[in-house]
C-alpha cells in the first residue's frame, strides 16, 4: 500500500511540474507583442544566419548575413524573399510561417498538446498544419520560444534556432512593408 501511495504521489508531482512548465510557457508567450532575435537556419543542410523581428500577428522582417543582401518580409498576408538578383512573392497562408507567426493559434494548439521534454533544457510541442509538420521548442528555464522545425509537403526540413531574444521592443512599423521588385 505504501508503494502504491508513493507511486501516485510521484506521478502527481511529475504531472504538476509538467503542467506548470506548460502554463508558464503559455503565460510568457501570451504577454509577447513582438520579439527580436538572432537566428541560425538550416534548410536541408544549408546554413544561413542573421536577425529577425516578429510582430504578432503574422509579421516578420529578417535580414540575412549574406553577401546577396537577402531579406525576408511578411506583412501579415504576403511573404517576400528578396536578394540582389531574385525576388520571390508568396501568399503567407501557403507557408509554415503563417502558422508560426500566429501567436493566438499557437497558444490554443499548445494548450491542447502534450509537451515532450528534450534533454533537460527544452520543451517541444509537435503538430501538423496544412500538410506541414511543425515542432516548436521552448527553453525550460526561461520559457522563451527558442526555435522551430518544419517539414513541408516536399519533405524539406527547415530548422531555425533563436538566440539573443528581446521581447516587446519599440518597433518601426515600416520594416514590415514588403520590398519592391527591382
Give the structure's gist in a few sentences.
The chain has helices at 2-30, 97-100, 103-112; strands at 34-43, 46-55, 59-64, 71-75, 78-82, 87-91, 116-118, 122-129, 132-139, 145-151, 157-167. The longest helix is centred in the first third of the chain and has 29 residues, at 2-30. It has 182 residues and is an alpha+beta fold.
**Percent in helix:** 10-25%
CATH superfamily: Lipoprotein localisation LolA/LolB/LppX
Write down the overall geometry.
globular
Main β sheet profile = 11 strands, antiparallel
What class would the helix/strand composition place it in? alpha+beta
The CATH architecture can be named as Clam
- The tally of strands reads 11
The CATH topology is given as outer membrane lipoprotein receptor (LolB), chain A
Low-pLDDT segments, ≥5 res: 1-18
Distance between the termini: 76 Å
When the domains are counted, the total is 1
Radius of gyration: 19 Å
Number of helices: 3
Mean pLDDT: 88
Order of helices and strands: HEEEEEEHHEEEEE
The spatial strand order of the largest sheet comes to: 6-5-4-3-2-1-11-10-9-8-7
Q: What is the level 1 CATH name?
A: Mainly Beta
Tell me the fraction of residues in β-strands, as a range: 35-45%
Amino acid at each position: 500500500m505504501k508503494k502504491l501511495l508513493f507511486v501516485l504521489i510521484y506521478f502527481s508531482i511529475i504531472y504538476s511540474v509538467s503542467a506548470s512548465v506548460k502554463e508558464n510557457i503559455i503565460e510568457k508567450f501570451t504577454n509577447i507583442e513582438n520579439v527580436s532575435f538572432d537566428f541560425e537556419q538550416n534548410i536541408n543542410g544549408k546554413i544561413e544566419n542573421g536577425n529577425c523581428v516578429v510582430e504578432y500577428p503574422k509579421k516578420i522582417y529578417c535580414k540575412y548575413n549574406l553577401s546577396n543582401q537577402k531579406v525576408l518580409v511578411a506583412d501579415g498576408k504576403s511573404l517576400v524573399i528578396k536578394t540582389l538578383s531574385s525576388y520571390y512573392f508568396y501568399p503567407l497562408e501557403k507557408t509554415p510561417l503563417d502558422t508560426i507567426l500566429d501567436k493566438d493559434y499557437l497558444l490554443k494548439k499548445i494548450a491542447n498538446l502534450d509537451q515532450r521534454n528534450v534533454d533537460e533544457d527544452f520543451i517541444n510541442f509537435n503538430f501538423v498544419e496544412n500538410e506541414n509538420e511543425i515542432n516548436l521548442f521552448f527553453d525550460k528555464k526561461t520559457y522563451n520560444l527558442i526555435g522551430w522545425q518544419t517539414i513541408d509537403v516536399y519533405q524539406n526540413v527547415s530548422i531555425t534556432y533563436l538566440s539573443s531574444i528581446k521581447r516587446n521592443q519599440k518597433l518601426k512599423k515600416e520594416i514590415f512593408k514588403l520590398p519592391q521588385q527591382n
